[in-house]
Amino acid sequence: MGDLKKGKLTHRTVWEKIADKLRKRSLWMLHYCTGCGAVELPPTMTSRFDMERFGIVPYVTPRQADILLVTGYLSVKTLKRLILVYEQMQSPKWVIGFGSCTINGGMYWNSYATIKQLDNYLPVDLYIAGCMPRPEAIIRGFNRLIEDIDNGSAQNWKKYYLNYEFYKKNQEYVFGEVNTNLDIKSDIKRFKIK
Amino acid sequence: MTRTNDEVRDYNLFIGPNHPGISGNYSVILKLRGDKIIEAKAEGGFLHRGFEKLMEERLYLQNVAIVCRICVPDPDPNEENYSRAIEEIAGIEVPIRAKYIRSMILELSRIASHLLAFGSHAGSIGLYTLPNWTISDRDRILELFEELTGGRVYHIFIIPGGVRRDLPKGFKRRVLEVVNYLESRLPEYDDLFINSKLTVKRAKGIGILSKENAIKWGATGPNLRASGVKADIRKDDPYEAYPYLDFDIPTQVEGDAYARLLVRRAEIEESIKIIRQIIENIPEGPVWNKTPNPLKWRIPKGDAYVRTESSKGEFAYYFVSDGGVRPYRVHVRGASVTHGVHILENLLVNERIEDASQIIFSLDACPPEIDR
Amino acid sequence: MDYERENEFIKDIKSVFKEVVCTVKRERRIEIELPSERLFEFATRMQKNWDYPHLSAISCVDWIKENQFELVYHFWSYNKKILVSAKIRIPREDEPHFESISSLWQPAKFFERDIHEMFGVVFDGNDDLEKFILTEWKGSPPMRKDFITRKYSIEFYGERKYNPEWMKELKKLGDSNDKN
Questions:
Q1: pLDDT tens by residue, chain B, 372 residues
Q2: Domains in chain C, start-ordered, CATH in brackets?
Q3: Which residues of A touch B24 (CB under 8 A)?
């Protein structure tokens, strides 16, 4: 499995460093409530805890969103739609795993309908622990992501192109074949991933 | 063979799982002709975890920790139903002080769920100021829960035999402060949302559920009361401390989306009245009747059907025990099982596409209850 | 305690269905055991003659040792305020057939669809029995008692093994509170 070693794939030119400094202040989050952890998102978005002061705004279409927030457990039926949504988002993009169900299955560890490890199907940048995390913990997670974008260590979206067969094999094992028309070769050329 | 003009114009529109116009992870497939809806089909199952199977593999006390996650905005009727089913089969008595505390928790949870429903309904029309107000006010109730039980959303407080611990010092005064504050905010919600000309013009006359259809299609809760039927499980089939309390059941006659909104707003006032009575009259005494060793506890053979009035409707459990250490069968009848599938499909026919989102939010169906 | 209203209603039922077993469990709860051929007649009488418009739920229980399925129908009346649970038994096969009551009650359509995909019981007369929840599921009906979910989950989805290497790295980094 190809790994991101320091220096080879995390090297950034001067223009990319400036672009990252500007990007980190205006991240748009995709508003897709996939599981039961989504009930702590309205308090975070509204006036008491207010995450809009960091520039993070919930938005509805995947084509214009940067962060995918996987809130809680994922059943197999939702995972199929989530992969389609993930592949429609434009690079660079970040995935945050929310709650303990994305790490090891959580409370539903012996269920026949939920997936246990999100790492096998999508590359994840950050995990927020809790069941469910408080709004203050969510904001702390976002701040950590902003720092990571600034110093160049949040580039796991490139792993999806490099290890595409691994992710695709796990996805098809769980829910069958889906044709998504993702063009790997031209994307690797455009973003200069080697 | 040529197609008629109408058949060429028909097309399918997916109000799919990733959509702000639907409450939660649920999907409705519409068939449109121009701007008018001809047919609607609901599709669920995105939130399925297999709860009924998980509960058969855990001990009786282990299930108390996971059962509250079946309904996400209003989790307390789940714990109440589970504990009351076990008490009915095993013949355990609950002390009177615990009954009053349980009723107070259920009423606070009902107010929090109705405030969240207001916010969603206003968001579907375009009034984004109201969710900012109601969700911040709902946070004060969640702070009360955090002080009493330790968790903001999922409480795990109602266990078979009573409740887990007694009220802390000064708690009654703090509950009265929050309740007085919420009552002073109701006129402001009226001025901004409920009596404004925009809401009245958009919400009146759409999604009409007549009285015969409401009974025939199995509606319960505020949806039934907005069509003129005066039925409430707290009065018809009473449980906990409700026989000792004095409250009213608000109803409306028209059965459209505006009538459902008015019924929910009146229920908040009634709940505030109930909480004030509980705080004045709560008796002293123990709060938990000790149950035997939880790892080896066996319940005698039998079955029970318990029902609760949650904020969405009639919530019921059918519980079967065969004398072992694990439940044999637990069947969960969520409150939105009839609202989210059949009534939604029938009410959307012959409406326009711009009213579809408002009809979905005014029925207040919660997808985790349908999928379990 | 003397359950007057419940016993009066039991007399009405027994005047038509002479050999059934009726018990009063507590206040406002009556339980009836019926032979499975007479259920449709019972349901028609409940709705038309005895004022029971609300079907609360249909539940299914898998008694694997006795080789039978049990279907329980719960009816509620807004005027009489007594809940009646009618229980019947059908044999436990791969695809048992039973008559549907969805022509009388519309909520029964969804309850029967749910029992069909979870247990495998086919209801004749219900034309809407396609899968609602388990559309990507290829195995046997999951709520039967011979399907063990813990074994299936560990085999199919795998487990994250406890790996001491990353534990040591985390301990070296210290608590994240020190940095922020």
A1: 566 777 777 889 988 888 888 888 899 999 998 888 999 999 988 999 989 999 998 888 889 999 999 999 999 999 999 999 999 998 889 999 999 999 999 999 999 999 999 999 998 888 889 999 999 999 999 999 999 998 899 999 999 989 999 999 999 999 999 999 999 999 999 999 989 898 899 889 888 999 999 999 989 999 999 999 999 999 988 998 899 999 999 999 988 999 999 999 999 999 999 999 999 999 999 999 888 777 778 889 999 999 999 999 999 999 999 888 889 999 999 999 999 899 999 999 999 988 888 899 999 888 999 988
A2: 4-131 (3.30.460.80)
A3: 33, 38
Find residue C60's DSSP bridge partners.
C71
CA angle B117, A70, A86 (to 5 degrees): 115
Across the interface, whether the CB atoms of B333 and C106 are under 8 A apart is answered no
The C-alpha atoms of residue B109 and residue B346 are separated, in whole angstroms, by 30
**List of chain B residues whose C-beta atoms are within 8 Å of the C-beta of residue C142:** 50, 53
Of A33, A43, A60, the CB nearest to B25: A33
Whole-angstrom distance, CA of residue B322 vs CA of residue B320: 7
Q: Best residue in A73, A83, A107, A112 to probe C by mutation, most C CBs within 10 Å?
A: A112
**DSSP conformational letter for B327:** -
Residues of C in contact with A80 (CB under 8 A): 136
d(CA B54, CA B45): 17
Q: What is the pTM of this model?
A: 0.91
Triad C22, C25, C27: Cα angle to 5°: 115
Q: Neighbouring chains of B at 3+ CB pairs within 8 Å? A: A, C
| B53 in C contact zone (CB under 8 Å) | yes
Closest listed residue to residue A75, CA positions, set A174, A173, A170: A174
Is the Cβ of B47 closer than 8 Å to some Cβ of chain A? yes
| Strand C29-33 to C83-91 pairing | parallel
Please tell me the distance in Å from A83's CA to the nearest CA on chain B: 12
ipTM of the complex: 0.89
CB < 8 Å to C87, chain B: none
CB B286 within 8 A of CB B97: yes
The two structure tokens encoding residue A69: 């927030």
The domain made up of B10-370 has a fold known as Cytochrome-c3 Hydrogenase; chain B (1.10.645)
CA distance B233 to B337: 17
Local structure of residue A114 (DSSP, 8 states): B
Tell me the CA distances in angstroms from B296 to B291, B323, B326, one per residue in order: 11, 12, 10
What chains are in contact with C, requiring at least 3 Cβ pairs below 8 Å? A, B
A37, with CB counted inside 10 A (0-12, 13-18, 19+), is buried
